[in-house]
User: What shape does this take?
Amino acid sequence: MLADPLLALFVVAAIGYLAGKVRVGRMSLGVAAVLFAGLVVSALSPELEVPPIVPHLGLALFIYAIGLSAGPGFFKLFRARGLRDGGLALAAVLVSAAVTVLLSRALGLSAQTAAGLFCGGLTNTPALAAVVERLPADTAALPVVAYSVAYPFGVLGVLAAIVLVQRVLRLDYASERPSVVDPMVVGETLSTATFRVRDPRAIGAALGALERDHPLHVRFVRHRRGDTLTVADEYTVLADGDLLTAVGSPEGLERACALLGERCDEHPELDRSVLDMRRVFVSNPDVVERPIRELHLHERFGAAITRIRRGEVELLADDDAELEPGDRVRVVAPRDRMAALGKFLGDSYHALAEIDALTFGLGVALGLLLGSVPIPLPSGGSFELGVAGGPLIAGLVLGRIGRTGPLVWAQPYSANVTLRQFGLLLFLGGVGLRSGAQFVQTVASAEGLALLGAGAAVTLASALVTLLVGRLLLRVPFAVLTGTVAGIHTQPAVLAFAHEQAKSELPRLGYTAVFPVASVVKIVVAQVVLALS
Assistant: This one.
């Protein structure tokens, strides 16, 4: 068939990526289809030998990029609802791990197969990568085969669990709303309102009064008194009859209105003769990973940032928000200062696709060095974090630090996504091309049916624990819980299903709350399963 391993690798990547876009109902395999394409090609051409450096390279790129993007969220998780959501995610993963170990012993499965079963039941490729990296070449195919058998029900089983629990408990999405909406998920509900001031006070004092109850997601933008239109800031002093525009969540805007005065139908934001508005790309490394208040935009340019577009999410630009390379921000500034403001922020589309080779190379190198350090065990001997664990920890820590002097560790959003995708293609294609023959033998045997049933049990254990404990004991709104279970399984297909069912952005609230910790915990627990099975 394909005699050249490099040619085969990229053919597998192309075919698998295309197959991953095919939807059966609400389900698609996504990039995981590359693994199955590699298994098929390998089964047809067992003589293919892909060098081990290929999946190792892909793994290092993928894991480090994941760590960079998850770092801030991972360490912020333990604020607010973090302990509750993190504890629920940890409990669900540990229950699945316990089920995996028990079933592996009952069925006489190898430790390598059990670890792959755990990864497939929870549809987690980074965990599989961490397991494969720790194994010698002659057993590395075992977890890949188990993962491949368990993966399909790893998606379908979660969807079935959501529908089952909803019907058994007779839950109504529309009647359940959380008391506090996470700022990270209000992006698509941001709106603008204009108020006529009836209770004059400084904006800073107004915000202080609003935040005494609980944090408010509102940004005051324009201040109009008579014919004078300026950008508002915390020192703006209001007078009776002034117009004030604000951006925020519907709840925040209602509370701001009740405090300051009344809504009006005038729209100062449409008058662009004095103040202009535009989107600007953040590409200047000097302005990233610093709170917006430290940029002193109002003092320098009479300007303000109102919204931050990061990937597919739009966030409110409060003073504590930190810009990241590749953000698209909406700015309001005097027309004659807009060009200078754009230059200050960078506004280079070309720079958004560039990787900072210095910091990326240093970060991956630090991760690989960390992964090679022997860590002693109390019982004697030692272990290493390896190509998966070292870069992951380095990425998490450096992603949280953000910058060290002139070195900015974060990569532009688009560049980070590209690195993740390319690394994952190399890893999935590489391990698939090394495991096809054994996959065919397993599927055609009685062991394949046993693995399928065991994988279903692993998936349902995690999903049902999350949904039932979260709803009955923790009283989490079910729309949020559907996103939580999607985040625990790191499964976008489940998140899309949850959005369709809830018809709101609430599932993303649960997803973003647990995704970082679930990703890290599963990588660690998968290796525990490998040791205990």
